[in-house]
């Protein structure tokens, strides 16, 4: 029996055509050499093995609600989710990963709808107060990076 339509698009209200359906935030303690090395190596493997996913630059300082260094990977389809998330479960090592949908309700996406791989971190949720009136804006951490772009925004 062929897979049903549910494998082609995310359930409402998760975005489908207007942006990524899910974000994966991969965290590292920037002062921990082992975690930083693992994050850099993991990001390189993602860029090589999952090049269809939009992978963003590494932030070596807290940004937005994220309390420590991180980089983001956007997941655009259920098929990508099904391939990438199990891979992260196996390969995340000492890193914590927040996986959340993008519904437009930033606070709910990062809390109620969120799931964690590894240790759960305390996010700076007060940042989402400003998003209540700024729905559908591009957040600073969404600036894309290429493998050779060392510039930190």
Please outline the helices and strands:
Elements: E1 22-28, H1 33-49, E2 54-55, E3 69-75, H2 78-91, E4 96-101, H3 106-110, E5 115-117
Antiparallel strand pairs: 1-3, 1-4, 2-3, 4-5
Catalogue the unreliable spans: 135-153
Helix content: 10-25%
Portion in strands:
15-25%
- Class based on secondary structure composition and strand pairing: alpha+beta
- Secondary structure tally: strands: 5
Strand order of the largest sheet: 2-3-1-4-5
Major sheet description: 5 strands, antiparallel
Rg over CA atoms:
15 Å
Compute the number of helices. 3
Mass-distribution shape: globular
| Subunit arrangement of the protein | single chain
List SSEs in N-to-C order.
EHEEHEHE
Distance between the termini: 48 Å
Q: Give the averaged pLDDT, no decimals.
A: 86
